[in-house]
UniProtKB/TrEMBL annotation:
One of its GO terms (molecular function) is peptidase activity. Residues 6-224 form the Lon N-terminal domain. This is ATP-dependent protease. Pfam families: LON_substr_bdg. The keyword Hydrolase applies. One of its GO terms (biological process) is proteolysis. The keyword Phosphoprotein does not apply.
Length: 246
């Protein structure tokens, strides 16, 4: 078992290997992570781990709130995640490599990172300026019939795109060639489909590529059938996600 200890970055979303993650960082605990990463040489990976939040808040309250206006906001690296932070996060996450870290004049950061490797969360340390985690790196097992399943998922995904575009009464850009490598297909579709966090998390932690593709095939067929019966469906662009405000 290969383990690694990295800064931990909890989000209200799921990061997949190969996918780009833009971050707008203003909270002190996350600023501290970026300052630490900037100590590494530019030619070395600046890695941190991203996990989806199961129970807690990505941004800690910074002012007294309702109903008690005198309540003291939580502070520190584990603010918003309870006494045992490890229980607040999903077990499987993804390592991110920060290609760009730009510090603004006010001390906040603009970051562009890319997901690289899936990891299993083993423990969380809240004793420093930011959360750190011990993580087990997970290999990507192709499973059985991944190639054939990837072809089926791509066909279903194109149908899903067409249905979604029709429901929105607009066209989606489909000029970009989609990949044909099964693992890449599985992660791209998982990230692009309009699914909630639990569904995306389930796809991230699938035991192998084939299992993920089988689950995606079912989800795409179900979602396409639903969209067919909903002539007006609000949705965001398939290949764009909001910048996380941390």
């Amino acid at each position: 078992m290969t383990t690694v200890r990295l800064p931990l970055f909890p989000l209200n979303s799921v990061l997949f290997p190969g996918l780009v993650l833009p971050l707008n960082i203003f909270e002190e605990r996350y600023r501290a992570i970026m300052r630490e990463l900037l100590k590494s040489p530019e030619d070395e990976p600046r890695r941190f781990a991203v996990v989806a939040i199961r129970d807690g808040h990505e941004v800690a309250p910074s002012a007294p709130g309702m109903p008690d206006q005198t309540a003291v906001p939580e502070r520190g690296p584990a603010a918003g995640f309870g006494d045992e932070p490890v229980k607040a996060f999903h077990e499987v996450g993804c390592i991110a490599d920060a290609a760009t870290i730009r510090e603004r004049a006010d001390g906040s950061f603009e970051v562009l990172a890319t997901g690289t490797t899936r990891v299993r969360l083993l423990s969380v340390d809240a004793s420093g300026a930011f959360l750190t985690a011990e993580l087990e790196e997970l290999e990507e097992d192709p499973g059985d019939e991944a190639g054939a399943l990837a072809e089926g998922v791509l066909r279903a995904f194109r149908q899903y795109q067409k249905r979604l575009a029709g429901a929105r009464e607009r066209s989606l850009s489909t000029g970009t060639e989609l990949p044909d490598e099964p693992a890449v297909v599985s992660y791209l579709v998982a990230a692009a489909a309009m699914l909630d966090v639990p569904a995306k998390q389930s796809l991230l932690q699938a035991p192998d590529t084939a299992s993920r593709l089988r689950e995606e095939l079912k989800l795409l067929r179900t979602e396409t059938a639903i969209i067919r019966n909903l002539p007006s469906l609000p949705a965001s662009d398939l290949t764009r996600g909001p910048t996380s405000l941390n």
